[in-house]
Amino acid sequence: PPAGTGTGVSSATGGHGISGGDQSRDGRLQVVNEKQEFTKQLSPYLSKWNLLDKGFAYDVVAVFGSQSTGKSTLLNRLFGTSFDVMDESKRQQTTKGIWMCPSKYGNTLVMDVEGTDGRERGEDQDFERKSALFSLASTEVLIVNLWEHQIGLYNGANMGLLKTVFEVNLGLFGGGGDTNKPRPQEKTLILFVIRDHVGSTPMSNLTATLTQDMEKIWASLSKPQHLADATLSSYFDLSFAALPHKVLMPEKFEEAVLELRKRFTDRSREDYVFQPSYHKRIPADGVGFYMEGIWQQVLSNKDLDLPTQQELLAQFRCDEISTVVTEAFLASSKVVRRPVEVGTVVDGLGALMRDWLNTALGRFDRDASRYHAGVYQRKRLDLLASLHSSLSPLFMGQMKNLHKVETAKFSKAIVAGVKEPGYDFGNVVKQGKEGARARFVEAAKEVQIEGTDWEYEHELALLEDDLRLIADQCRADETKKMVNAIERTVKRQLLEPVEVALSQPSTKMWDTVLETYRSVSESGEEAYLVKAKSYNCTEEENAAAIAVLRARIWLSLRRKLEEQTSDATILATLRSNFEERFRYDEAGVPRVWKPADDIEAAFRRSKDDTLALLPLFANISPSSPSLLPTLPSPEASFDSESDPTPFDPSTAFVLLSPTKLLSIETRFKREADAAYVEAKRSMVSSVAQ
Ligand code: GDP
Ligand code: MG
Predict the structure, then answer these.
(1) Dihedral of the CA atoms 421, 427, 428, 434 (nearest 10)?
(2) What one-character DSSP code corresponds to residue 95?
(3) Was 239 annotated as part of a binding site?
(4) Beta strand 236-242 pairing with 97-102
(5) Percentage of residues of the chain with pLDDT beyond 70
(6) Which of 86, 244, 423, 517 is most deeply buried (CB count within 10 A of its CB)?
(7) Mean of pLDDT values over 70-91
(8) What is the chain's alpha carbon radius of gyration, rounded to the nearest angstrom?
């Protein structure tokens, strides 16, 4: 059966039939149109063709040659593509432009250049030059398609075309001799496909002729200074294939095409065309941007050098990849932003952050490391810095929240600690501080990220300040409590002896009172100092607490004395004294008055003796003035009442004024008189019985 005639794609032959190919790879794309505009669809198409994520694992082949030499036909047969082929019957021109189509036999992009043949038609060679530049910038293998009979015609159209190819190639890698720039892959394979090979001239002759021609063209180029010594072979490898006449020997043609296809698909072959050294090292996901950039440069006739293009590409793609990576990163970190903002300490936040960072950098490295190394490294640093700074508020927030949690825990620990029986306040504080500090530092270290300048020392210092303040406040409270407790004990020890002493008035009474006062005060102060040892109080704090204690003890003594010297109490004291003397005899037996008794004398004696006691209550007057205590300072008493009397040396020891004494004396006399009258009456009535 006749193989496809001209249209190429119309029928399938052999095991690699088109219908058995990858259906998603159908369809071609006009990369550059007749108006020399570059398509916006390249990346979407690469994606549709399943090539976008191939990294470097894809190849590019382009074809060059005179118009109507069967280029498109060849590509369609070789790669199963669907490029337009000139309709034999109409001799109609195909659409001008650069077309792209994926191969059905491997991850290969095939480019077909359709143009007017400037040389033959006398038109300008502008598009030819542009498309040559464009192809060389991305192609590993450039197929140069030519009729056998064109070989050796040195001045023929093909040779002019190749001269153009060589010239533009020099420009691409010339780079003005800037040796600082990294040199991209420079080599390209030129595969001559000799069409309508009759076979009468041995292949070796044809390839020798072509090789010589190439060398001649190379020699004839005017090269830039720094490339004067460059050889053809430093930029191009030459390879050859021949195909029989497609119309006259269709079967032979098909056989030869299948054989040739193997050179594009079988890596194990020695003449496999896609050698790594030809790859232009543009990652598949950068091809769209790169090719468009190349075309724009070509269009504007600016100097086009590939190192610069690759850097531009790397910048663009690394930025794009960073954006994608950052979006995912922010999305994953979002879950903890709110909790941190509202004050939660997020457990394992550091591990989470490290995980997001690793994921983000892993993705970035995977996709971006294929691009220009310098740019990639720089962009990686940028990305890392921006990721770090987006995490920084989380770190700060966590520090703040830890601070809050630990101060709260510390307060609680103290409150709980001082409820323990026999607690040592100093220890409670010390342990609380140590615990808070250790937990804070551990959590802070967990959330620290390598490579950042995040530090927790400042926040730790703030925490320690706060803990100190809390401890100080608690200590003040505790000290107050302690002073109160001691005051209660002291009062118990003081008040009863004082009451007893004053209820049995005597000249020794004040010595007893002041002696008791002195000794209970001293033991109170001692008790304070013993307890205060564990509180780490300062000298001033101790002094202040003791001053308070002294003022309180003095005040309670003063109050007790005032109470004991109130009218009613004194009268009661005097009354019981008087009755003791008047109603009981020396042996303590109640007297029964008899008519012989001198009631009057007994009455007067008892009354006068009792009245002699009254002045004892007027002042605190010990046997020696040196026994009088030093008065404490009133400010220390915590007392809201501002009665200066107890603290003023001129009033502090005075209990009863002369007027008061007189009035008490009068009242007492009246009561005593009543007792006398009653005694008299009782005697009369006993006599009467
Ligand atoms: P292109 O312009 O180089 O892409 O050429 P086409 O593939 O469009 O083919 C141009 C014409 O050459 C068409 O009519 C094809 O049928 C014919 N053709 C294709 N392959 C061969 C071949 O191997 N030998 C000859 N003589 N003609 C061919
Ligand atoms: Mg064509």
Answers:
(1) -150
(2) P
(3) no
(4) unpaired
(5) 89
(6) 517
(7) 86
(8) 57
Kindly give, in sequence order, each residue whose CB lies less than 8 Å from that of residue 145, ignoring residues fewer than 6 positions away: 63, 64, 65, 66, 69, 70, 71, 74, 193, 195
Q: List, for residues 276-321, the tens digit of each pLDDT value.
A: 999 988 999 999 999 999 899 888 877 777 788 888 899 999 999 9
Q: Is 67 annotated as a binding residue?
A: yes
Could you tell me the domains of the chain? 28-173+184-304 (3.40.50.300), 311-455 (no CATH), 472-688 (no CATH)
Q: What does DSSP assign to residue 614?
A: G
**Residue 664, φ and ψ in degrees, nearest 5:** -65, -40
Ligand 1 pocket mutation, candidates 28, 63, 64, 68, criterion most atoms within 8 A of CB = 68
593: its two tokens: 């008055």
Residue 384, token pair as written in the block: 């890392």
* 313-362 per-position pLDDT tens digit: 999 999 999 999 999 999 999 999 999 999 999 999 999 999 999 999 99
- 385-417: burial string, b at 16+ Cβ within 10 Å, e else: eebbeebeebbebbbebbbebbbeebbebbeeb
> Do residues 343 and 316 touch, judged by C-beta distance below 8 A?
no
Dist. CA 624 → ligand 2 center (Å): 135
Asked if 331 contacts 360 with a C-beta cutoff of 8 angstroms, the reply is: no
Q: Give the pocket of ligand 1 (CB within 6 Å).
A: 6, 67-73, 85-86, 88, 195-196, 245-247
Q: Which amino acid is at 223?
A: K
The model's pTM: 0.69
pLDDT of residue 126: 77
Sign of the four-CA dihedral 366, 370, 373, 374: negative
Distance CA 140, CA 137 (A): 9
- Give the DSSP letter of residue 14: S
Q: CB-side exposure of 23: number of CA atoms within 13 Å? A: 1
Q: How many residues does the chain have?
A: 689
Residue 70 assigned ligand-binding role: yes
Q: Which of 72, 82, 86 to mutate to test the pocket of ligand 1 (most atoms within 8 A of CB)?
A: 86
Counting ligand 1 atoms within 8 A of each CB, the residue from 67, 68, 73, 193 with the most, and so the one to mutate, is: 73
The H or E element spanning position 290 is helix 287-299
How many beta carbons lie within 10 A of that of residue 275, not counting itself?
A: 14
Q: How far apart are the first and last CA of the chain?
A: 174
Has the ipTM of the complex gone over 0.85? yes
Is residue 127 classed as helix, strand or coil in its secondary structure? helix
Instruction: Tell me which residue has its CA closest to atom 9 in ligand 1.
Output: 70
Q: Which residues pair with 240 in a beta bridge?
A: 192
Check whether 152 is labelled as a binding-site residue. Answer: no
Q: Is 58 helix (H, G, I), strand (E, B) or coil?
A: coil
Taking a C-beta distance cutoff of 8 angstroms, is the pair 672, 607 a contact? yes
Indicate which residue's Cα is closest to atom 15 of ligand 1: 6
Residue 347: helix, strand or coil by DSSP?
coil
Which 3 state secondary structure label does DSSP give 443? helix
